[in-house]
Amino acid sequence: MFRVILYLLFAVILISVLRAVMGIIAKGFGELIGPRTGQAQSSQAPGKQVPLTGELKKDPACGTYIAAASSIQEKVGGEILYFCSKQCRDKYVASLAR
What we know:
This protein has helices at 2-33, 37-43, 86-97, and strands spanning 56-58, 65-67, 72-76, 79-83.
């Protein structure tokens, strides 16, 4: 009985070590293959970054909530509406024309 517990404990330790080693290897290959995060952030235009916080507005066409800073804004009837995409904006404007 003691021998079985010892084997199970050894197996758990061995699996943990192997997972850690494989994670380190995978991270190394990922850094070699993928773009570097420092370079990717500096090469992006400041207007293309999506804000992490901010006021959420509801898209009137599809009902999706979108950050006001990254939404497409359209003034309709003196009111500013916020859309998640150009398709939703066009769909809403077309529904008003009917």
